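in:
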């Protein structure tokens, strides 16, 4: 098998999404995976940095709304929530609905609790994938 080129990687549509019925809101929403850039920004946004610049904790305020703001999209994959005011409004919605959608957003984005711990520097280092042979 030939190795991929940067152009081939760039052309690949690797988005994942689920269209989810939300009866509480009277319709369906599309929950899409975050890009690598969005995922890093979300994780960074959750960190509380100390005066030394090192992670001191995790900011869980509006965590579901902040996650869903990066994952709720329209048919053309444009984000529905962009401004801080919009995200605050989303955070005011039913917490059970937000949690249900956030679970889906985490799944399609490959984001779990361990990813938050990684961002906060709480996890063990991952072993290298390289190997040597005799």
């Amino acid at each position: 098998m030939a190795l991929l080129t940067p152009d081939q990687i760039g052309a690949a549509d690797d988005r994942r999404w689920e269209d989810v019925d939300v009866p509480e809101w009277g319709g369906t929403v599309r929950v899409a995976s975050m890009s690598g850039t969005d995922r890093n920004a979300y994780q960074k946004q959750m960190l509380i940095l100390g005066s030394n610049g090192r992670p001191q904790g995790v900011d869980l305020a509006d965590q579901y709304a902040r996650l869903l703001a990066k994952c709720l999209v329209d048919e053309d994959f444009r984000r529905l929530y962009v401004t801080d005011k919009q995200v605050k409004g989303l955070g005011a919605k039913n917490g059970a609905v937000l949690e249900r959608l956030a679970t889906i957003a985490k799944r399609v984005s490959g984001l779990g609790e361990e990813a938050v711990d990684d961002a906060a520097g709480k996890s063990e280092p991952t072993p290298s994938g390289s190997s040597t042979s005799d």
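note: Residues 26-119 form a domain with the rbstp2171 fold (CATH 3.30.2220).
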